[in-house]
Design brief:
alpha/beta; Leucine Aminopeptidase, subunit E, domain 1
Amino acid sequence: MEIELIRGDITNLEVDVIVNAANTELRGGGGVDGAIHRAGGEEIAEACDKIRESQGGCPVGEAVITTAGKLPAKFVVHTVGPVWQDGKSGEPALLRNCYLNSLKLAVENQLDSIAFPNISTGVYGYPKRAAAEIAIQAVRTSDNTLKKVIYVCFDDENFRIYQQLLN
């Protein structure tokens, strides 16, 4: 499996699936979630509405897959990261589950490439280095058949952290 790091906008990537750092209601919010919903259009919102109707949203640490709408990617996996409290409230395991459940959905849908944002490091307040360590460890130790995993950092700080950890 090839691992790549880029600094940029995840909504511009031509990959099989991009991961959305969603909220439990699967309604476009701020940050990457809002950007994905805006760029992908109504098809994503409608797919999320159907998921809400059938299962009531998406719990923290879990993941669901939808169309990518107008995005260049084929699909969007929506996963809900934990809000940072103190690191002793299950946040590391929940964040790890975000990555593992996203990878699992990509494999189940026979996809080859996936792109991850920096889940939970924005308004959810997860410390960036700790989150990056979990993201990298989860991917490296997962049992998956993907050909390519891309970490997409929107900001310079996350990009530098991932560069250090991947080297």
